[in-house]
Predict the 3D structure of the following.
Amino acid sequence: MAVDISISVQAEGFDPGAEYNCLRSENYSDGATAMFVGNVRDFSPEEHGDEHRPVAVLELEHYPGMAEAALTDIARQAAERWPLGRVRLIHRYGPLSAGEEIVFVGATSAHRQASLDACTFMMDFLKSRAPFWKKEFAGKESSGRWVQARDADESALDKW
Amino acid sequence: MIKVLFFAGLREQLECDGIEVEAGQIATVTELRGSLQAKGETWSSALSHESLQVAVNQQLANMQAGVKDGDEVAFFPPVTGG
């Protein structure tokens, strides 16, 4: 049976509980549901000797069209590797305040390992292959600072 | 024409989010990049970053990828979504 894949790239927020309900609605064949939600942190981690910096707002830029295509491709790759029932990917763009949801990844499968692995796989690829860029702002008046890509995110793909 | 787009820090450096380039003799991403770098010092240095990424018709590509009239080519820094 074809995997049910749903992708959204949107400015508005989402309700993880409602997304869970969609993954489960009339779904009697999948005994496992794995989900990951990424949220905006209120600090930027130390790196290259810099100290923690406060973050009030994260501005997410995206490449319209390619963002949707990249997420669809990542979901399809996961669906080819694991026996999944449903896949749901949401990625937001625009200004997001600390604590807000940025990204949702969900997968259902008959047994737990496939759904857990598929979620990790999709997050790993999303981090290094989907055209989104983060800019951190410490406050309303501050000039922003682009988040730098981490080598660890690129090397995370090696395990797949 | 080739539609060229710039994103994130690169867009800010160039103060430009997109430009149309006459395809002419341009056959690869490298040649397209070279013709943009000829626009001046800002363009030359901004597009010389080793980590510069490129997508051709909304698919990740490399600098050797072919380009032709009507294509959409995007240059951007490494992505940081998720």
In short: The two ends of chain B are 33 Å apart (CA to CA). The mean pLDDT of chain B is 96. The interface with chain A takes residues 5, 7-9, 51, 55, 58-60, 74, 76-82 of chain B (CB under 8 Å).
